[in-house]
UniProtKB/TrEMBL annotation:
It comes from Thiohalobacter thiocyanaticus. Gene3D superfamilies: 3.30.70.270. Residues 137-249 form the GGDEF domain. PROSITE patterns: GGDEF. This is diguanylate cyclase. Signal peptide: none annotated. Transmembrane segments: none annotated. It holds the Pfam family GGDEF. PANTHER family: DIGUANYLATE CYCLASE DGCM-RELATED, REGULATORY COMPONENTS OF SENSORY TRANSDUCTION SYSTEM. The lineage of its organism: Bacteria, Pseudomonadati, Pseudomonadota, Gammaproteobacteria, Thiohalobacterales.
Length: 249
């Protein structure tokens, strides 16, 4: 389609668009631009030298600082025209990326494993901690930290093992730093230690030749604990060398 358009036709097509269009002659020199492109420049078209970031773009996307200091994420397309010239078409997708980031921040699940992410686990764990305060019921929290050659496939394999070994009432969360968090309602530390031993054995067999090791930390809920202090106490017991070192409940 584009190689059948003349520069003037392309300019007419996009001059009312939010997308920015820059037409270059056969020598790569700026020939024309639409209003949206001129709004991206801190100078007029005459000041658009060969080292300008817009002309230096050589990929499908470009991070660009606008004339008011705004940071823009631009998609870039290279369009050949009928007379041997070409056009650069820039589409600002900064707002789309911002919305995607906000959506990711609001998400409660890890995109790789489908488990609760750190935020999701916090949301799920808070009622359990409140229940412990009200009824003095037990709750143990286990941290599992992977070390070695850990990729997304390894994280998926670990998540499957955890789902297989834990009860339906238990909660499993994970974060992108290779750490899994297991919240075990109605579970004392001694019982959680038995679970850790089983998981340690299962993971060792699963990754025997894969260069992946697991370290565990454990804390049982205390009356002074909130969600974060419980996680912090479990994290303090993580010891890669010891494997299953635990904290006093």
């Amino acid at each position: 389609m584009w190689d059948r358009l003349t520069p003037s036709q392309l300019g007419e097509l996009l001059d009312t668009s939010h997308d920015a269009l820059l037409v270059l002659d056969s020598d790569g020199q700026p020939r024309a631009a639409n209003a949206a492109l001129l709004r991206l420049l801190d100078t007029g078209l005459d000041g658009l030298g060969p080292d300008h970031p817009l002309l230096a773009a050589n990929a499908d996307s470009l991070s660009y600082t606008g004339p008011r200091g705004e940071r823009l994420e631009l998609q870039v397309r290279y369009l050949p025209l009928t007379d041997g010239s070409r056009a650069l078409w820039f589409r600002d997708h900064s707002e789309q990326q911002r919305l995607e980031r906000e959506l990711a921040e609001q998400s409660l699940t890890d995109p790789v494993t489908g488990l609760l992410n750190h935020r999701g686990l916090g949301v799920a764990l808070e009622p359990q901690v409140s229940r412990c305060r009200r009824y003095d019921s037990p709750l143990s929290l286990v941290l599992l930290e992977l070390h070695g050659e850990v990729d997304n496939q390894a994280r998926i394999r670990v998540s499957r093992i955890l789902k297989d070994q834990l009860r339906w009432a238990d909660m499993i969360g994970c974060s992108e730093d290779q750490r899994f968090i297991l919240a075990l309602p109605e579970t004392r530390q001694a019982d959680a230690e038995q679970l850790i031993a089983k998981l340690h054995e299962r993971l060792a067999a699963e990754f025997a030749d894969a260069g992946v090791d697991a370290a565990f930390g454990l804390a049982e809920w205390r009356k002074a604990d909130n969600t974060q202090t419980l996680i912090n106490r479990a994290a303090q017991t993580l010891d890669p060398a010891a494997g299953t070192r635990t904290a006093a409940g």
